[in-house]
Design a protein that fits this description.
Blueprint (H helix, E strand, L loop, with lengths): L1 E8 L5 H14 L3 E8 L10 H18 L5 E10 L3 H9 L5 E5 L7 H6 L2 E3 L8 H19 L7
Parallel strand pairs: 1-2, 1-4, 3-4, 3-5
Helix pairs in contact: 1-5, 3-5
């Protein structure tokens, strides 16, 4: 069975996001071992200087690296990433035998060195979304990709 891990910095505050993600996780049980790993967001209280943000991103990146499954295809979710259609994402899944790991950063993004270590950079849109909504959208797209590959009628 395929393995998909979502590593995210920070957790849901709103129950409706958690409920929406839980629905897709429930559906995904038929297709893969889907798990989420929450990394504590580093504090940038006070003046949000570039140095302070960079240091926080480095600390988050160290924790993220430890959570990445061994030999995984690493996909950084970032605004400058490539945009794929749902069928193109399904093709990535169909052609991959390794575990798949998506990485969602904090509101400040991801450490540049970590992004360079990833196999792919993926963007959902040129628009900006709250990170918690992005998690729900990613869960839905992962489910859609498996549905496409499984010949299910979910994808239109």
């Amino acid at each position: 069975m395929n393995s998909v891990t979502i590593i995210h910095v920070g957790d849901f505050k709103e129950k409706y996001f958690k409920d929406a993600e839980a629905e897709y996780i429930k559906r995904l049980k038929a297709f893969c071992d889907y798990k989420t790993v929450c990394i504590k967001e580093e504090s940038c209280f006070g003046e949000e200087s570039e140095k302070l943000i960079a240091r926080a991103l480095e600390k988050e990146a160290a924790a993220i690296r430890q959570a990445i499954p061994k030999n995984a295809l690493k996909i950084a979710m970032c605004i400058e990433g490539k945009q794929l259609s749902s069928t193109e994402l399904a093709s990535v899944f169909a052609n991959e035998s390794r575990p798949i790991c998506f990485i969602i950063g904090s509101s400040f993004g991801l450490d540049e060195a970590l992004k360079r270590e990833c196999d792919m950079r993926l963007s959902m849109s040129k628009m900006t979304f709250p990170h918690m909504l992005a998690r729900v959208m990613l869960a839905e797209q992962v489910y859609r990709a498996f549905a496409i590959n499984g010949g299910k009628k979910y994808h239109k």
